[in-house]
């Protein structure tokens, strides 16, 4: 197992979605000496680096090298870019009902004019010439054949979305017309030529680009694609993930008892990973069995394996030994963040990685957002979220040396830190809108903090996955 921090690495550039998509489409193999392949975590340091205000090193003689939190996220992005080059992943033609949350690998171009014929924008009457008008007996409904042309002084009842008869001057809304004593239609407002008529090609012409490569497929994009004539979309395939839940102490049902606790991560991780764009293939409960873990890791064909627990150095923490046994390359071995310090990222093959999450639930969430999110986002060619900050309403205690991730709710123009933010607690994150990134030393009231949105608070795409 290769140790992290073998050389200093350059600052990670921002992921360019079109670059990632080009990698998917061009399918190049990893070039000789590819820096993404050999890069160690950026600026990896001993966990005992100097703290703020001249604080002394802690554990200065420890051989363990933890990675600063921003550098760990950048390392995960670089690892994913290298995996995209190596994997030769081909864009998929995906039915519309399976494309939600994918990224377009080809532009969405209109297959027809929209609308494809002149259509009524309102319920009312199609009228020709100045009023009053004689009204035809039959009406015009959406989905029916083209109606007969109108002549001056003639009107016909028309429904929203119906084809406009030839020689129509305007559509008179139902609420803007009345019938006089002679049965003729009178306008109660001025009639403007072309009013409430959606002309053919008003929205787009056939061949117009509607959405570019790299667009995230939202429900609205699905609707636009269907309206433009599509049955399938060309999209980047979802990264495939296997989840391995470790720990003999975990129950899958009932109340905690006899020193056993309920498994919170087994139910939580699959939907969270789907919200990050992944296809979760399997969730396996391994227990504290090194041989079973080894078999599961070596048998997996997933792009990413996610393990829970077992990343420290206790008597049943088998992740490191198994990674060493399979010859994995450790890219991140510990991160300077609380909770979640003992998380790790390893390269198993050129196109396969393992993210080891701590066993405590909130610490595992920290690992998801630190390592799994940038890796999966890059593999899926999703656009990176725009960073933003908000002032914290209350002071937040900081760790002397490490970044803290603290659940917050958004209220107006500020973020309110939540209680119950210990590594083993889910009560805070269950109520949260985001996680605040608190620097070493803490933040005072009113101080700006970077925020990490939770997937279901940024559009709800992920929660629609099944």
From TrEMBL:
GO CC annotations? cytosol
Which SUPFAM superfamilies would you find in this protein's record? MoeA C-terminal domain-like, MoeA N-terminal region -like, Molybdenum cofactor biosynthesis proteins
Q: Where is the composition biased (Basic and acidic residues)?
A: 55-64
In residue numbers, the region (Disordered) covers 1-89
Q: List the catalytic activities from the record.
A: adenylyl-molybdopterin + molybdate = Mo-molybdopterin + AMP + H(+)
Task: Provide ranges: composition bias, Acidic residues.
Answer: 10-19
Role this protein plays: Catalyzes the insertion of molybdate into adenylated molybdopterin with the concomitant release of AMP.
Q: What is this protein called?
A: Molybdopterin molybdenumtransferase
Native species of this protein?
Answer: Streptomyces pactum
